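Ops channel
N.P.: pipeline sanity check, posting one input/output pair.
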């Protein structure tokens, strides 16, 4: 039974690494295209500038860190595993804006592939991790409660910002600004609220509570 579990864990880890490598290549390629292919984004100057800013971060930070976390000799270390999980989670969250907020463009299939590869790589990576061993790698004097407080404050403040805007619309039926006055289309405001409230706020809260009590999953989630 133990041999079977170990075999399945290794299979999940191997599949996760291949998917993560594919995601790193796709992120680098799509980001480079977004930065240097004129007219790739068709959403207007403000949205184009926003996406190009995201592309710059993805090309300079995310793709290199994700690739580095897969290097032989380092990929199984706790630090590399945490970097890999973080970069994959970033890709799932960040590229959701490209999928559901942007107008149709030539990079859509690449963005779909990034989200798909990153999502499955993230799930398989977490499944294959020994969370207890990962948590044990942290020093006893690591200021986990200070980090937990920061995460809790982030959760409360982000929830307050997004809920207040949505509650205002629910009660009055009006948005803070008319769509014609918005530099960035209203779809991004709505999408940001949905992603934050469904993904970030719960993750921040769980991480804060678990990390405060020094539970193993708190280290990974934070």
């Amino acid at each position: 039974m133990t041999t079977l579990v170990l075999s399945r864990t290794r299979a999940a880890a191997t599949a996760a690494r291949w998917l993560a490598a594919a995601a790193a290549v796709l992120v680098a390629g799509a980001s480079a295209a977004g930065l240097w292919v004129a007219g790739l984004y068709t959403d207007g100057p403000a949205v184009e500038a926003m996406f190009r800013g995201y592309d710059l971060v993805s090309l300079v930070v995310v793709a290199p860190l994700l690739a580095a976390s897969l290097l032989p000799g380092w990929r199984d270390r706790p630090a590399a595993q945490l970097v890999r999980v973080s970069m994959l989670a970033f890709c799932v969250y960040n590229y959701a804006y490209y999928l559901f907020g942007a107008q149709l463009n030539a990079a859509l299939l690449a963005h779909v592939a990034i989200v798909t590869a990153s999502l499955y790589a993230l799930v398989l990576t977490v499944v294959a991790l020994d969370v207890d061993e990962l948590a044990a790698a942290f020093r006893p004097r690591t200021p986990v409660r200070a980090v937990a407080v920061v995460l809790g404050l982030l959760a409360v403040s982000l929830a307050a910002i997004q809920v207040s805007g949505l509650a205002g619309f629910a009660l009055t039926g009006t948005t803070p600004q008319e769509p014609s006055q918005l530099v960035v289309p209203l779809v991004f405001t709505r999408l940001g609220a949905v992603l934050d409230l469904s993904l970030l706020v719960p993750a921040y809260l769980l991480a804060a509570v678990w990390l405060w009590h020094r539970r193993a999953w708190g280290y990974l989630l934070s």
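N.P.: looks fine end to end. The longest helix spans residues 2-36.
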